[in-house]
Amino acid sequence: MMETVKVLHHYWAYLVLLVLVLATFNAVIKTIGKKEYEPKDFRISLFTLIVSHIQLLIGIVLWFTADYFSELSMGEIMKNSVLRSNVVEHPVAMILAVVLITIGYSKHKKQLSSAGKLKKIAIFYSIALLLVCAKIPWDKVF
Fold first, then answer.
1. Which keywords annotate this record (predicted)?
2. What gap in Å lies between CA 102 and CA 111, rounded to an integer?
3. Which of 33, 70, 105, 115 shows the greatest Cβ crowding within 10 Å of its Cβ?
Protein backbone atom coordinates (compact mmCIF):
# COMPACT_ATOMS: atom_id res chain seq x y z
CA MET A 1 0.00 0.00 0.00
CA MET A 2 2.70 2.50 0.99
CA GLU A 3 4.68 1.65 -2.12
CA THR A 4 1.66 2.75 -4.18
CA VAL A 5 1.51 6.03 -2.26
CA LYS A 6 5.24 6.59 -2.90
CA VAL A 7 4.79 5.97 -6.61
CA LEU A 8 1.77 8.27 -6.69
CA HIS A 9 3.73 10.99 -4.87
CA HIS A 10 6.62 10.59 -7.30
CA TYR A 11 4.58 10.80 -10.49
CA TRP A 12 2.10 13.40 -9.20
CA ALA A 13 5.13 15.65 -8.67
CA TYR A 14 5.59 15.79 -12.45
CA LEU A 15 2.05 17.09 -12.82
CA VAL A 16 2.56 19.64 -10.05
CA LEU A 17 5.78 20.89 -11.61
CA LEU A 18 4.21 21.07 -15.07
CA VAL A 19 1.13 23.05 -14.02
CA LEU A 20 3.13 25.29 -11.69
CA VAL A 21 5.53 26.16 -14.51
CA LEU A 22 2.56 26.72 -16.85
CA ALA A 23 0.70 28.93 -14.39
CA THR A 24 3.82 30.90 -13.49
CA PHE A 25 4.95 31.55 -17.04
CA ASN A 26 1.40 32.32 -18.13
CA ALA A 27 1.05 34.96 -15.40
CA VAL A 28 4.53 36.41 -15.93
CA ILE A 29 4.16 36.66 -19.71
CA LYS A 30 0.70 38.22 -19.45
CA THR A 31 1.89 40.64 -16.76
CA ILE A 32 4.85 41.76 -18.85
CA GLY A 33 2.71 41.94 -22.00
CA LYS A 34 -0.03 43.86 -20.17
CA LYS A 35 -2.63 41.33 -21.31
CA GLU A 36 -6.12 40.94 -19.88
CA TYR A 37 -6.99 38.37 -17.23
CA GLU A 38 -9.20 35.70 -18.77
CA PRO A 39 -11.25 32.80 -17.41
CA LYS A 40 -8.52 30.49 -18.73
CA ASP A 41 -6.04 32.16 -16.35
CA PHE A 42 -8.40 31.54 -13.45
CA ARG A 43 -8.71 27.85 -14.36
CA ILE A 44 -4.94 27.42 -14.71
CA SER A 45 -4.24 28.99 -11.32
CA LEU A 46 -7.06 27.04 -9.67
CA PHE A 47 -5.86 23.75 -11.16
CA THR A 48 -2.36 24.51 -9.89
CA LEU A 49 -3.77 25.16 -6.43
CA ILE A 50 -5.73 21.89 -6.41
CA VAL A 51 -2.92 19.73 -7.79
CA SER A 52 -0.38 21.15 -5.34
CA HIS A 53 -2.69 20.59 -2.37
CA ILE A 54 -3.26 16.97 -3.40
CA GLN A 55 0.51 16.49 -3.64
CA LEU A 56 0.92 18.01 -0.18
CA LEU A 57 -1.65 15.62 1.29
CA ILE A 58 0.09 12.63 -0.30
CA GLY A 59 3.42 13.87 1.05
CA ILE A 60 2.00 14.31 4.54
CA VAL A 61 0.73 10.72 4.47
CA LEU A 62 4.22 9.57 3.47
CA TRP A 63 5.90 11.67 6.14
CA PHE A 64 3.72 10.38 8.96
CA THR A 65 4.04 6.74 7.88
CA ALA A 66 7.82 6.86 7.32
CA ASP A 67 10.04 4.54 9.31
CA TYR A 68 12.63 7.24 9.97
CA PHE A 69 11.31 8.14 13.38
CA SER A 70 10.98 4.59 14.69
CA GLU A 71 14.55 3.69 13.73
CA LEU A 72 16.46 6.95 14.26
CA SER A 73 16.39 9.85 16.66
CA MET A 74 15.93 13.38 15.38
CA GLY A 75 19.57 14.13 16.25
CA GLU A 76 20.74 11.27 14.02
CA ILE A 77 18.49 12.44 11.20
CA MET A 78 19.84 15.99 11.44
CA LYS A 79 23.47 14.77 11.29
CA ASN A 80 22.87 12.92 8.02
CA SER A 81 22.51 15.40 5.13
CA VAL A 82 20.46 13.05 2.93
CA LEU A 83 18.04 12.15 5.70
CA ARG A 84 17.81 15.79 6.83
CA SER A 85 16.94 16.82 3.29
CA ASN A 86 14.28 14.11 2.93
CA VAL A 87 12.75 14.34 6.39
CA VAL A 88 13.02 18.04 7.22
CA GLU A 89 14.09 20.38 4.41
CA HIS A 90 12.01 18.92 1.55
CA PRO A 91 8.73 18.81 3.52
CA VAL A 92 9.20 22.30 4.98
CA ALA A 93 10.04 23.81 1.58
CA MET A 94 7.07 22.11 -0.09
CA ILE A 95 4.68 23.21 2.65
CA LEU A 96 5.93 26.78 2.21
CA ALA A 97 5.51 26.48 -1.58
CA VAL A 98 1.89 25.33 -1.20
CA VAL A 99 1.26 28.12 1.31
CA LEU A 100 2.63 30.65 -1.21
CA ILE A 101 0.46 29.20 -3.98
CA THR A 102 -2.57 29.43 -1.69
CA ILE A 103 -1.80 33.01 -0.67
CA GLY A 104 -1.20 34.04 -4.28
CA TYR A 105 -4.44 32.45 -5.41
CA SER A 106 -6.38 34.04 -2.57
CA LYS A 107 -4.88 37.50 -3.09
CA HIS A 108 -5.41 37.42 -6.85
CA LYS A 109 -9.15 36.90 -6.37
CA LYS A 110 -9.39 40.12 -4.35
CA GLN A 111 -7.80 42.25 -7.07
CA LEU A 112 -10.10 44.24 -9.31
CA SER A 113 -7.83 44.82 -12.30
CA SER A 114 -6.36 42.28 -14.70
CA ALA A 115 -2.87 43.60 -14.04
CA GLY A 116 -3.30 43.18 -10.29
CA LYS A 117 -4.65 39.64 -10.60
CA LEU A 118 -1.88 38.48 -12.90
CA LYS A 119 0.82 40.23 -10.88
CA LYS A 120 -0.22 38.48 -7.64
CA ILE A 121 -0.17 35.09 -9.34
CA ALA A 122 3.15 35.84 -11.02
CA ILE A 123 4.85 36.89 -7.79
CA PHE A 124 3.60 34.18 -5.45
CA TYR A 125 3.69 31.30 -7.94
CA SER A 126 7.22 32.30 -9.04
CA ILE A 127 8.52 32.16 -5.47
CA ALA A 128 6.74 28.83 -4.97
CA LEU A 129 8.29 27.50 -8.18
CA LEU A 130 11.75 28.51 -6.99
CA LEU A 131 11.19 26.72 -3.68
CA VAL A 132 9.91 23.60 -5.40
CA CYS A 133 12.83 23.51 -7.83
CA ALA A 134 15.31 24.10 -5.02
CA LYS A 135 14.13 21.15 -2.92
CA ILE A 136 13.06 18.56 -5.47
CA PRO A 137 15.34 15.56 -5.03
CA TRP A 138 16.59 15.75 -8.62
CA ASP A 139 18.65 12.57 -8.26
CA LYS A 140 15.40 10.63 -7.76
CA VAL A 141 13.34 12.36 -10.45
CA PHE A 142 14.48 10.35 -13.44
1. Membrane, Transmembrane, Transmembrane helix
2. 15
3. 105
**Cα 79 versus chain centre, distance:** 26
d(CA 136, CA 13): 9
At 78, the pLDDT band (50, 70, 90 cuts) reads confident
- Calculate the alpha carbon distances from 8 to 18, 58, 63, 86, 87 in Å: 15, 8, 14, 17, 18
Nearest residue to 115 via CA among 25, 33, 19, 24:
33
The two counts, helices (H) then strands (E), for the chain are: 7, 0
pTM of full prediction above 0.85: yes
Q: Is 5 helix (H, G, I), strand (E, B) or coil?
A: helix
DSSP per-residue letters across 43-100: HHHHHHHHHHHHHHHHHHHHHHH-SHHHHS-HHHHHHSHHHHIIIIIHHHHHHHHHHH
